[in-house]
Amino acid sequence: MNMAWWILLWVVVILGMWLVALYNNLITLQTNRENAFADIDVQLKLRFDLVPNIVNTVKGYAKHEKDTFKQIVEARTGFMNAKSIESKVAANNELNGALKTLFAVAENYPDLKANQNFINLQEELSDIENKLAASRRYFNSATKEYNIAIQTFPSVLIANTFWFKKAEFFELDEEEKKATKDAPKVEF
Fold it and tell me: pLDDT of 9-24, one tens digit each?
């Protein structure tokens, strides 16, 4: 009888350790996803910090384009006040539309397109956009890994017990999806 109790005790201990390992894996995946969004957040902050410099450069050439500048300021303010991932994504999408309008305005001012400050700011923005795209891919990969883990057996048992929820991907709005499918327009 003693031997049976020891075997049962070892089975319970091993099962307990296995459940703790599953739980810790879910926490690790959740933390990786949060860290991946922190990378996106850094790039978005850089982007939103760069935008006033672009706006000020363009303002000197296009003083009557107040609506465009207002949209950019509102998008930047919305981002700075955003607390959740969803609200930051929405503010990012608003800025994308406003920046498209801003660069369309810039197309109408040949002197502006040749201005070295404007060119440097566009290059910085392009670099940030590339880093942001890489951060989005990493975030979505971490989200996918997390979502798979909480939906597959046996970790789904732990996920349901401790209320792990399916996470949302960082998705572009419909206009931005269309813009990324179209070839960029380059003029000299």
Answer: 999 999 999 999 999 9
Residue with tokens 């860290």: 35
CA atoms within 13 A on the CB side of 176: 17
Query: Which residue, 173, 162, 168, is CA-closest to 143?
Result: 168
- CA-nearest of 168, 172, 174, 171 to 144 is 168
Q: Are the C-beta atoms of 170 and 75 separated by less than 8 Å?
A: no
Query: Measured at the alpha carbon of residue 71, what is the angle toward residues 68 and 76, in degrees to the nearest 5?
Result: 130
Helix H or strand E segment including 69:
helix 66-81
pLDDT, tens digit (0-9, with 9 covering 90-100), for 134-168: 999 999 999 999 999 999 999 999 999 999 999 98
